[in-house]
Design goal:
- Strand 11 and strand 12 form a beta hairpin.
- The longest helix is centred in the N-terminal third of the chain and has 14 residues.
- By secondary structure, this protein is an alpha+beta fold.
- The chain folds into 2 domains: 232 residues, 3-Layer(aba) Sandwich (Beta-lactamase), CATH 3.40.710; 96 residues, no CATH class.
- It is globular.
- 28% of the residues lie in helices and 16% in strands.
- Helix 1 packs antiparallel against helix 10 and helix 2 crosses helix 7.
Length: 362
């Protein structure tokens, strides 16, 4: 089955309402759409936001505005002099001092001591405390969080769940990264992202909201049988907190521009050294079978995968139905954006079918 057939079959089956896809095999680019979507539809890319902002951060590292092994205390004083839970199961007020300061590398690598622990109960003591203080800790909700300074104040009011550098934890590190890069550059994150990454790469449909005249290209997103967000919903207005973990909308063409830039060495927005750090696994597994790890902002396959992705393939998945992976072995870029959120921790079948079709043709 080819990519077009694979995606269309899942739309016909009712698994997803719409999807757009793009596969670039060594410069041979094929794309298409199915269901309610068209090739230039705009999608909520949720966690695929993470590598976009990570690429921005590495550009600041290139320029010396950030240094990977420097503490974040000067830019994020809310995270200075941290307390840490005695054990992951300790009550929120049973803490010990942090062994060391949190570094920029910890934030980029999701090892700052805050975030979702996929091996334990959700949300856990620390994220539960953040939720009680008013921070959303579930699916993307861009209109629910306060502005960055208040968001950081609340984050700074709880202890870390783990010592800095000790444990890979999901999501919160990317949110903190968005505040960190904005403060480092002295610019709001949306403006900084546009100036340093989106505009140079021609990613004109990527941002934290959809302009009114483009909203017809967005459409709704579903979570199971229910509509999770309408076209005039949470992405229709500028959010107080531009969420660098899950807040962006984009298109397959825009994500292809970024993927192609990383594949070709980073120019004009990154050095080859910065790209190498983004796409190299740091030895921190984030799935139970150990087949995927985490670079500085990108998921990286550390072994060949049953769906055809080779070791060294890098990218990320978004829980609202988005995925992008690049396989250097076969020189294949594969992007799939859908209108339907995952309903479990496992990829929906359209993802597996898409990967198998895209990467088996390298």
């Amino acid at each position: 089955m080819d990519v077009k057939e694979a995606v269309e079959a899942r739309v016909v089956s009712g698994e997803v309402h719409g999807a757009a896809w793009l596969v670039d095999r060594a410069g041979d680019v094929r794309s298409g759409a199915a269901g309610i979507s068209v090739p230039d539809s705009v999608f909520r890319i949720s966690s695929v936001t993470k590598p976009v902002v990570a690429a921005l951060a590495m550009g600041l590292v290139d320029d010396g505005l950030l240094r990977l092994d420097d503490p974040v205390d000067a830019l994020l004083p809310e995270l200075a002099d941290r307390r840490v839970l005695r054990t992951p199961d300790s009550p929120i007020d049973h803490t010990v001092p942090a062994d060391r300061a949190i570094t920029v590398r910890d934030v980029l690598g999701f090892r700052l001591g805050l975030g979702m622990d996929f091996t334990g109960p959700f949300p856990g003591a620390v994220l539960g405390a953040l939720a009680e203080r008013g921070l959303p800790v579930g699916p993307p909700a861009p209109q629910a969080a306060p502005a960055p300074d208040e968001w950081m104040r609340i984050v700074g009011s709880v202890p870390l769940a783990h010592q800095p550098g000790a444990r890979w934890l999901y999501n919160t590190g990317a949110q903190v990264l968005g505040v960190l890069v904005a403060r480092a550059a002295g610019r709001p994150l949306p403006d900084l992202l546009a100036e340093r990454l989106l505009d140079p790469l021609g990613m004109t449909d990527t941002g934290f909201q959809v302009p009114p005249d483009q909203r017809g290209r967005l459409g709704p997103t579903w979570l199971g049988p229910e509509v999770y967000d309408e076209a005039d919903g949470q992405w229709a207005t500028t959010p107080a907190f531009p969420d660098a973990a899950s807040g962006l909308v984009s298109t397959v063409a825009d994500l292809h521009a970024l993927a192609r830039t990383l594949r070709d060495g980073g120019g004009p927005v990154l050095t080859t050294a910065a790209v190498a750090q983004l796409v190299t696994a740091a030895g921190v597994p984030h799935d139970p079978d150990g087949g995927e790890g985490w670079g500085l902002g990108l998921g990286v396959c550390t072994a060949d995968r049953p769906d055809g992705r080779h070791a060294g393939t890098y990218g990320w998945d978004g829980g609202l139905g988005s995925t992008w992976w690049t396989d250097p072995v076969t020189d294949t870029i594969a992007i799939l954006l859908t209108t339907d959120a995952w309903t479990s921790a496992q990829p929906t079948p359209v993802f597996t079918d898409f990967f198998t079709s895209a990467f088996s043709r390298g």
